Amino acid sequence: MTATPIVSLREITKTYQMGLVTVQALRGLSIDINASDYISIMGPSGCGKSTLLNVMGCLDRPTSGSYVLGEDDVSQLDDDALSLVRGSRLGFVFQSYNLIQQMTVLENIEIPLYYQGWPEDESRAVAEEMAVTVGLGDRLHHRPYELSGGQQQRVAIARALVNDPLIILADEPTGNLDSASGADILGIFDTLNSQGKTLVLVTHDPGVARHSHRTIRLRDGVIESDVRNHPPAA
Predict the structure, then answer these.
(1) pLDDT at 135
(2) N vs C: which end of the chain shows fewer Cβ within 10 Å?
(3) How far, CA to CA in Å, does 213 sit from each of 184, 185, 199?
């Protein structure tokens, strides 16, 4: 039996108007993503990688086409509805970590649950659990500037996990890290995927892409290739 995709993009286009110039960032992409997929999105600068991730992350709307996340077509939702989707169904990991420097590790991890209105004791318990999951159980009350880059990215991963998202979206997650710290972060992603988490990574690094089960290459806003590298996690 064919699995039902948890993400289904159909004929997605994205056009930007830059002064008198019209830029077609995406030109009719169609992609299905199943639960437990581990996908790398690659391609040259300007090919549409970040635009695609922004559409998938409900940070931007497509100009045309449909985007079904879970069972809902989110491509036509208004800003408030998109915000709810981002907070409850998506997890984000960015190259620059995007942590709040004045907050502790625990408080940074709790942020998505705070915006969903969770009671403080419950959100605190879940945040502590996620911190332990990424190896930061002894850093709960440190602030980001007291951590290494690899540790900050672990905080970002824990924050992405805290709402138990349908899918985790990572944009160059090892781009600011040395090779050892980058390998540690990829090890965490590998473990999460083996536990059934669905991951989509934008990367320019073939070494990072080799961790994924499937590589989608873009060029000029279209899919150049979509190749499965390894079987998905059980």
Answers:
(1) 93
(2) N
(3) 18, 17, 10
pLDDT at 115 over 90: no
Distance CA 113, CA 30 (A): 32
The arrangement of secondary structure in 35-58+78-228, i.e. its CATH architecture, is 3-Layer(aba) Sandwich (3.40)
Q: How far is CA 129 from the centre of its chain?
A: 20
Mean pLDDT within 207-213: 93
pLDDT at 231: 57
CA distance 35 to 67: 16
Amino acid 233: pLDDT: 52
CA distance 114 to 99: 15
Q: What is the pLDDT of residue 77?
A: 85
Q: What is the pLDDT of residue 17?
A: 87
Distance, CA of 171 to CA of 185 (rounded, Å): 13
Three-state DSSP at 22 gives strand
In single-letter form, the type of residue at position 111 comes to I
Token pair recorded at residue 84: 């709810």
Identify the bridge partners of residue 167 per DSSP, sorted by sequence position: 90
